Task: structure prediction
Amino acid sequence: MRRMSFLYMLFLGSIAACTPVTAKVFLRVEPSPLPPADKTGIHDVVLLWPLRNLSAGAKLRSQGYRVFLQCESKDLAAAAVAADRAAFSGMIVTNTVTTGQTPVVEQLRPYIAAHKSLTFRVLVPGGKQPQMKGRLVVERDGVLQVSNPSSQPWLDTNLALVRLAQSMDPESPPILYDFHWDTSEALPDVWHPDAEAYAVSIAEADATRSDVAIDLPAPLQRALVANDPRAWTLWKAIMPYLDLSSQAPTERTVPVVNLGVIVDDAQASYEATNLMARHNLAFESVRPSGLTLAHLKSWNSVVVFCPLNKEAVALLRNFAATGGIVIFVNTHDEFPWHSAPPLRQDPRITVYSIGTGQVVELAEPVVDPEHFARDLRRLIGRERSALALWNSLTTLVTGYHEQSRPDVTLYLVNYAAQPDNVQVQVKGHFTRVRLESPEEPCCVSLPFVERGGFTEFIIPRLRITARVHLDAARESSAAP
Amino acid sequence: MLWLKCAALASLTLAMLAVPSILCAPQKSSFVHQKRYAMGTVFEIVIYDEDLPHADAAARAALDEVVRLDGIMSNYKPESDLSRMNRTAHFQPVRISRELYELIEESLFYSRHSDGQFDVSVGPLVDLWKAALVGGALPTAADQASAVRCVGYQKIELIPPDRIQFNSDCMRLDLGAIGKGYAVDRAVEILNHRDIHRAYIDAGGSTIYALGAAPGGNAWRVRLRDPSRKLDPEVMLINNSVSTSEQSAPGSLQGDAPGHIILPGTGKPLQTRYTISVTAPSATASDALSTTLLLLGPTKGAALAKALHNVSAIWIDSDGQRTLAGDGVSFLLTGENRPIHVSPLKNRVTAISKTAKEFLP
Result:
C-alpha cells in the first residue's frame, strides 16, 4: 500500500505539472502582513487552508504577490471555491494519496474545469531540507547518536525525488516539492534557518529545474514587517539567490545524462537513485513502458530495477552489443544472453559480455546504496561520464541543454555553503565557458582546456551556487 | 589531488554512542553542534556548556582553525603551503609554515618507528592509484616502479626551524594519514583555551577526540567499527582519541577495485582483512598509528604498539578474530557471550612522538 501511495503521488505530481509553471520559489507564509513583493523579491506566496480570513490573501495580492492556497485533497472542493472567490492565483494540493483507486487526473478534472482562473499544482511528497549532514545527531533526550555510516559528507538532496517524479511524465513542466526546516539545533536569539540554508534551498530548486515551497518562519515574517534590521540583513543575504534563480533560462530543456535508470517502483529504488544523485552520476529515470530507442541513444549505461518485457530486453541487448553497460538489480529472469557462458559468476553477481558491451546481473537488491553508487561510478568510468567533478564532495552538478541546441548550462550547488575550488569535466567541445553566480553577475569567462573529448575548467571559489554556460562551436557567434 | 584521500575514502569507521547508562540526558538547550566540510570530510563538534553563545563561538573558532589548516595542508589546492612545497622543494630548501613543519616532523617519527610502512612521501603512489579508484585503468608495473622510486621518507630533509628539502626529483608528500588527526588536536587546543570542558570532536568518524567526559558520566563511550559484527567493541574516552582504519572494500560490480591505502615499499594497495582501532593521547598519534599498525598487520603491529605508552590497538577481521596490544585504554567487547573488558599489556615504554611527550612517563 505504501509503495502504491508513493508511486501514486509521483504520478499525481506529474499530472498537475501539466498546468502552467508559475514560479521557482513559493514562499509559504502566515496569513498576516508581509512586506511588499518588490521588497522581498518573492512573487508567489502560499497560504494554508483552512483560512479564516480571506482578506489576508487580498492584502498580499495588493502587495504584488500571486497567492496560492494549499490544501489537502479532501478539502479541495471548498478551498478551490474560496480561492476562486478571493481571486487567488492557484491551488497547491497535498495528501492526495487517500483518494482510492480513481485516477487523480480524473479527481482534479472537475475542479480544473470549474475554476478556470486557478492554476492547480500538486505537491510531490518526500522532500527534505537540502543540506550537508554530518554523522552525529543529538536526539531529543540529548543523547548523541551516529546518523550516518559514511565518512564522506552526506548530502540531503531532492534531485532523485525530482528525477523519479519526472520519469512519470517526461514532457511535464517542473514538479513542485517542499520540505520543513530542521529546527532541532536552533539556538535562542539566532535566526534559524540562516541565510545559507535558504540559499541552498533556492539553488537546489534551480539546479533540479523544479519549483520548491519554502516555509517563512512566523517570527521572521513579523520581524520583516517590523523592519527589524537583523531580519532584513538576513533577507538581503538571501535576495541575490532569488535574483539568480529568477534569471534562469525558461526554455524547455533536456538534462545532460549518460545513465538511464529504469524503475517502476520509485520507493524501492529511491535510496539507490538518491545515492546516484549524490555521487553526481548524470542520470535520468524512465518507466519501463517509456523506454525508447531515443533514450538509449543518449545513454551509455543503464540500471534496471524492475522486470522488463521482451521488447525492452531486446532493446537493451542491442544497447549492450554496441558498447553499452546494463546492470540488472535483483533479477532472476531468464534472458537471451544466458545461452552463452558468463564472463564472471559468483552467488551475487553474473557478468555477460555482449558484443562490445556487458550485462551485469545482481541477484540481490541494493543493500548498500552508497557502495553501489560508488561502484557504479567506477564501472562507468570517467571516460563515459557526461559530467564529473574532481573532489568537491559537497557539490552537486546538473546539466541541461535545449532540445535543438548543443549549448549546455551547468548548475552547481555547494551544500557545504563555504567556498570550494571545483574542477569540472564536461563531455564535448565548447568554445566558451562563462560563469554566473550571486557573486559574479553574468558572466565571467573561465579558462578551459579540451582533453580527450572533454572540456575541463575550474570554478575557483564556488560558495553556494553558480551557473556555467558552455557555448558549443556552431552556436558561439549567436550566443548571448 | 585528493586531499587526505585515506580519510575521504574510508568508510564505516567509528560509531559513537553515549549511552544513557553513563550519560544522563542533558537539557536540549545545553549543547551546540556544528559541522564544517574540510579535508575531504565533515568535521563535527558537539559542546555541552551552560553558556551556549560561548560554546557556539568556541566551536566556530575550532572549526575555523580546521579550515585554516586545510588551506595549508591540502594537496589539491594549488595555493596551499603543501602544494607549493611539493612543487618547489626538490633539491633546494624552501620555507614552510610552522604547522606543516611540525606535522612532517611528527610524520617522520612514525616512519622511523614503522620501518617506513608509514610514509607521507607516498604521494606519487596515491596519485597513481586514485585514477583506478574512480574507474580508470590500473597502473602498469612500469608506472608503479616509476612512482616507487619517488617514495622514501629518508629523502625528506627538515632544516630547523622551518625549511624542508626533498632529495628526490619527483617526491610529493601526502598527509592523508595524519592531517585530520593534527587538525583535531588543534581544534581541541582552541576549545581548551576557551575553557570548554565537555566536547566531542569527530573528523568524519575515522578520528575522534573526547574532551572531558560526557554530561552526567565519567567518559564518552564510543562504539568501534567491527567488520565481523560479532564483537561490538567499545571504548571509553576521556581526554584521549581513537582512530580507525581499514582498506576500502573491493567493488561489488567489478570486484577488482584497488584499495586506497598503498604500501610504500611495493607500490601496491594493501591487502588485509583487518580493521584496526587505535587509542592514543592525541588525535595526531591515533590517526597516524591506525594507518601504521594496519600496514604492519597484527604481528609486527602488536610489537610496535606494545613498545608505546598510553596506546591501545585492536585488530578485528571479518570472522571476529581479534588481536589486542598496548597499555592504553581498555576495550569493551559487548558482543561476546559475556561482555568483557580487554586490557592490553602494560609496562611498555617508549616515546610516541614529539607532541605526545607530555604523556610519557
